[in-house]
Structure formats: C-alpha cells, structure tokens
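new request in #modeling-help
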Amino acid sequence: MTLRRRLTLVLLATAVPLVGGIVWLRSQAEHRATERILREIAQFRMEAVGRERCESAPADLDRLAVPAGPRPGALPNGAYPRPRALLGDFSARMGPPRGPMRPWRPMSMYAYDGAYHSRDASAPAFPVGLRAHLDAGEKFASAIEQHDGERWHLIALRTTWNDGPCAFVLARGPAPPRLPREWVFVSSASALCGALLAAVWLAVGPVIRRVRALAREMGVSAATRYERPVAVEGNDEIAALARAFNAAGSEVREHLLAVEKREEALRSFLANTTHDVMIPLTVLQGHLSLLRQRIDEGAPILRQQVHAAAEEAAYLGALVHNLSAAAKLDAGEGIVRRDPVDLSALVERLVERHRPLAEPRGISIAFAVPPDEAVHVLGDLTLIEQAVGNVIANAVRYDDPGGHVAVNLETLRDEPRRFRLRVVDDGPGVSDAELGRLGERHFRGQAGRARHQDGQGLGLHIACTVAASHGFELRFARPEAGGLEVELAGPLASGPAADPDAGPGR
Amino acid sequence: MAERILIVEDDVKLGEQIRECLDRSGYEATWVRTGEEALLLSPSEFGLLILDLMLPGAHGLDVLKRLRDGSDLPVLILSARNETTDKVRAFGLGADDYVTKPFWPEELLARVRARLRRPLLQRADVIELGELVIDLAARRVSVSGTAVELTRVEFDLLAALARRPGAAIARTWLVEHVLDPEREGGERTLDVHVSRLRRKLGPCARGLTTVWGVGYRMEAPER
C-alpha cells in the first residue's frame, strides 16, 4: 500500500467517526435542551392556569394554557386538530427558526385524570410508556414520537395536586430532527476533512518523491557494490536514512572486499599449488619410472636415483606447506596467533625431519639447544616452524655430499631476554651480490638454480616474511670457512608463558 | 619386552605402513582405524599413542580429551592440516608431540624414540656409559674400573656432556658454563681441555665426539 493511500485511509478512518461523534453529541445535546425547555414551559403554564381553571374546563386546557396571540403559521393537518401556537417566550428561548424551509410548529397541552383519560376529545391516548414512568412515582417523563414525518417531544407531567380531571398533563412540542438540521455544520466538517486530506497529500508529496529518489539511488549504489554512496540532502529523517544506508553500504563493501581478497588468495594458492606441484611430481614420476625400468632390466638400482626421488617427494611436501603459508601471509591476515612456542622442541623436531634427507646424501645434520632452560617465544607455531624448516631445508638441499649442517639455539648472556638461532652449512654458499637478495620471492642463487630447477624460491622469502611479522631479525652471512649462515634472533616470551611445562608448543 | 604402541589412523595404507615401520624397529604396534576402537582398549597396556587428528566419527582431539580423563599415556599427534589451532589445542589437551604429514618413517621413529626414552637428562648421582663411570657426588671418574684423575674443568665438562648422552652441547654454552670465567678464555681453551680429557679417557674417548658447527657430544651407549 502506498504512503498516500495509507494516509488517506487513516485520515478517513479517524475523521469520519470523529465528525459522526460530534454530530451525535450535538444532536443529543439539542434533544435534551429542547425537552427541558418544553417541560419547563409546560410546568410554568400549568402553574399559571391553576387547578381550578383547569378542572373547570379540562377539555380546553390548550386554549387556557396558551394565551391568545397571532398564529404565525398554518397548522399541519392530522390527528391533532387543535394545535395552539407556541408563543413568544418559547420562541425567544428556542431562538429564531433556522432555515427558510422549516415550518413553524406549535406546542399543545392536554389534561388527563388519574386513570389517564382525557375529557378533551382531541387528546391522544396517553402513551403507555410514559404512564409506566408516572406510575412508578416520577414527576415527569418524556418520549419522542414520529408523526407525519415530524418528530415530536411528548412530555408527561404529574400536576402538584395529582387528582381530578387534571391529574396529569401531556405536552406535545416540536423535537429537533435526529440528524442536525445545520447542513452548514455537516458540510463544513466535510470540507475540513477534505482540506486536511489535501494538506496531508501536499505535505507527503515531496517526502514521497525523496523516498523514491533515495530508493533509486540505493539500487544504483547496490549495483556498483556500494562503491557509490547515495546523496544525503537536508537534516531530516530521510537524510538520516541515507546516512545509515551509506554506513551500512561501506560496511558491506569492506566485508565484500575482504572476502574477495581471501578468495583471490585461495584461487592463487590453488593455481600456484597445481602448477608447482605438477612439476616436482612429474620429476618424481620420472625417477620412479627409471627405477622400474632398471628393476625390469635386472640392472642395479642406483642409490643416487632413490635419493633424488626422495628429495622430490620431500620437496613436494614442503612446497605445499609453503604455498599454504604464503597464501596466509598474502591474505594479510597477519599473525593471528600469539602462543608460547618452545623453540628447543621445534629445533629438535625440524632436525629430525631433515635427517632422512641429509644423511643418505652423506650430509651430517646436528643441533644444540640450551640444556637446562626452556626457550619460548610468542608467535604462530606453524609459521615459525615453516620459516626455520625452510632455512634448514635450504641448507640441506644446497650442501654438497659429505657436508655439514648445524643448527644452534642459544640464549645470549649479554642480552638475557633474547634468543639466537643459527643455521650453518659448509655448502657452496652464495656470492656477495646474491646474499642481499636471498629473501626475495622467486630468487634462487646460482648453485640452487643449477641443482633445483623447479623450485619457487619461496622458502627463504617465507622465512623473511614470518620473521618480520613476528618482530624477529633474519640475517644471512658468509662464514669465513665458506657455506651460508642464517641467523634468526628475537625476544623471548616473558612471564609464566616461558614455563617449560605450562605452554603449548612443546 | 618390546614397547607397545597404539596407532589410530583411518587411512589403510598409511596405518599399515606405520605399523610395519614400528614393528620392524622392534616395537609391538597395534593399529586401529577409529577413535572409538582406540578408547575401548586399555591405555595402560601401551607405552605411546600415535593419534591422527582427522578421524571418521570422533575427532582426534575428542579422543585425546577422553583419553586424558584417566591416563597419562604419552601421545604423539599426526597432523595433516598443519594448522596452529589444531596443534595448540592438542597441546592444551595434553598431547606430548606432533608430526606433520608428510613425514619420513625415520622422522616418525625419531619422534617415537624421543618420547619413549624421556627423560633424557640423567639425574642419578652415578652415570654409567659403558666402561665409563662418573660419580657426580664424589666427583670421581673411572674407565674400565680404573680411576682417572681429572681437573675441575675437565670433570665439569665431562659431567655436562655425560648427563645428556646423545645430545650435542654447544661450544658457547660449555665456555659459559664450564670454563672459569675469570681465568680462562674462549673456545680455543675449551678445545684444549677436551683434547686433554680425551687423552685421559683412553678407550672411552671415542664416545666424546666433536659435532661440526655445534660443539661436543657424549654418545649414548648402544642398548
């Protein structure tokens, strides 16, 4: 339902009963006033006529009671052949007759004895309803009577003497019509309603236009994914609505963008994973196929080929974990977790993980952690493990057969609230120019490129990003004896979290 | 008697592979595929539980939670998702260690051994490493029953290494904790002390190895 239609209906629903009620109340008030006046006149006249005069001519009360005077109008014909004029005082009290169409109507009075019989032949039968009231002891009673299309008041009075032929008096006088005679009143009430309706329509018009314009703008804004805000005009409720819409729109847009970014990261992760996993997987299949051929031919299996296949498999696993970490870091989620991480346990775990790759190639891998103290840092266990694991994997992968990889975790005597984790190898190392670029994404040194064509250069980049996001420092150095040294340093977790038995990350 | 290990892994190939690997390494492995089956068994019969997190029906963490109600059986978690939340929750529920998939059987074995041989640190007053016997309280050392005279630094050095057999100790740590900070210098001095100690240990000197890039280690005797 439109706003206009609703307002019209509401206005009509309230105005019509209101006008009707006023008309009814007014009609009731007029009815009661007329009745009271008629009763008072009848009482007054009976007092003026007196018992003796009435009883001397009870059939003629009307004439006795109403003093002679000019008859202002013709009398209606009917069952009341002797109506008398209602004289000046009554006319004055009733006010001038209203409207040219209203004929003047007289008041008549009839006397009745105790048994409600009148000696006046023209007197109407005493209304039964009124008799009941008088019998019940009331001094007067009244009723309305319809006659010849006119409404009449019937007023029954008990005279003060209360017996003889004039024990009761019935007065009949004009009653106001059921509906108000004042058409002016009715028409003005209707006009008022009409005017109100028009005013409401006029007032609502601009509001409706603005609401419609706002709805249109909202549609456009939604179509542009809330990039375009709606115009805010003025300082009223519609402006407040527009402002609220803009606020909600920008919130929705923010969520949309965040979701899109996450989706993009996921899509990119899937695309990268698919692409990058397929290459080492193909290489692995190649190794396995060659091994199968050699078995079929009865040729000895080369240790080197088995190691190469194992390396590819390990590389695949690391790659998937790295891509997952990269997607997490790229999505800008930041480091969401800050749990106490036991670096000693982490180092031991990582060395054990890389030993099966290192030892078959004749590379020894060893580690040391502070013997009697827990080394806890705050951070994301998975990301830190991934970062340190990448550094160790890098050292193992690029070291020469017969080489060494050492992982040292220390707390520093000079700086007691800091840790230092060093991964050293005695492989070919990198040049000075390459040293500064090791943390770049997709960068791999010459030695690496020669050995692992399918790598992504992701590992050390992730290590750098994770270190930075945890507030750790990651440095690359070339030890004098050759090889590469990677040092990760940062603050230890303080407080109860550093309790070796309390926190997770063991 | 072989140590009994319970494996909960829903994947048939992986579960079978782990069981075989442990059996070959001298353990007695029992493999079940669901958490419900695992909870029907008595934890006290096993020395270690290897628990996969992503199980059909009850999640691995739920199994861990219910197990921890009345048992302190060491638990090694197998995690494929590599999510920090999983690991932190597992540790919070009393897991002891985890291995992220994919893993090498050797890696898993190393984690299993590490769990089963703890505590690594020797607390006894007398440490016996084959023919080498070290009385920490009396500060006496003997090789094949013959007493060996050691200086204070040599004894402290040997004790530090022997208390953690199989674990490498960093040179920097030994310099800081064993050498006299007022009298003696750096890692060169340490090497001199080690060299003298080796001479004095005679046939047992083979157990005191140099670890490249790290420091020194006292090898654990073969069991």
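bot summary: The CA atoms of residues 53 and 213 of chain A lie 87 Å apart.
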